[in-house]
Amino acid sequence: MYPLSSIVFCFVVLLTLLGGGTSQLGYRCGDSLVHHNENNIKIVLDDLVSNATRPGGFYKTKAGSGGSNTVYGRFICRGDISLADCQSCIEDAAKEVLVLCPLAEKAAGRIFYRQCTLDYSSNPMFGIEDIYTAPVVSCDSQISSEPQRFMGLLKNALNRMADAVAATSGKFATLEANVSSASKTMYLLGQCTPDLSKSECGSCLEAGIRFVPQLCYSTLGAEIILASCHIKYDMYPLSKILPSPPAPIRRPPVKGN
Predict the structure, then answer these.
(1) What domain range includes position 223?
(2) Distance in angstroms (rounded) separating the CA atoms of residues 59 and 77
(3) What is the pTM of this model?
(4) Any signal peptide, and if so, which residues (predicted)?
(5) Does 103 share its domain with 155?
(6) Do residues 111 and 158 both lie within one domain?
(7) Is pLDDT of 111 > 90?
């Protein structure tokens, strides 16, 4: 978490949904009240990039002696992308965050892409639920023709999706649900950083879900990204995970006459 006493965040963003896998959605920069070690930030970012192909799409690291100059960093890639896409996203993020949050001026940085999030700070962040940092929010421009019914069905689907995410070891899940009288299918996706407990993950996703009626009421798609979790829904399939191919049919050998 980035405590307000030590970090002042800049740039709050509300975006319209756009296509593109590695399109940047937003960023945060932080000014620390303690001296920050630029070299340790570089070490952390290099380590994150070097581990961007780790299975699971999540990695955390730190550099420093444990005092005030210690820098903590982590990344998480969306649970349905390939390791190659994860690596590409993290490489882009590590470069761009230094442009947006120059080392000489900023002691913390967080950058959000559609496929990954990367952040570093002088404040501990591992296994800590952060629901206080302003989220990045994207809302579709299309509106449901039956908003009350839609929002009721959507809330139910989001809650079921959140339960599924929190219950998995990888803290990632997808869901399909009908959200209209015309039986239109809504596709939902949720994710938490895997180092959160089940209850912490559920709490983070619940916080994200609360933003939906406040900021994206009755829109047919939205994406809410907090520091520790991520929800997304839309009227077209979101996940790149393909179903397993059917098992081959084993036919008995043909016996000769």
Answers:
(1) 136-234
(2) 9
(3) 0.79
(4) 1-23
(5) no
(6) no
(7) yes
